[in-house]
Amino acid sequence: MNNDKEICDFGLHHGEPYTALPATFLNWMVETNHNKSHFAKNELERRIIAVENTFEESKNL
Questions:
Q1: Alpha-carbon distance 22 to 25, whole Å?
Q2: This prediction's pTM
Q3: Where does the source fall among the domains of life (predicted)?
Q4: DSSP per residue, 21-44
């Protein structure tokens, strides 16, 4: 799933892409089992993978 195209349609971050939402908001969605928490989970996983990839690349320098 590409979260770049998914837009939050509720609350304080209405109209913002999930890729731009703060981690605290995404975590809240997951913790409360919000009906759109799958978007939050996907975005949090994307960020974790990005950090891991950056770490691996920096080890190879």
A1: 5
A2: 0.84
A3: Bacteria
A4: S-HHHHHHHHHTT-TTHHHHHHHH
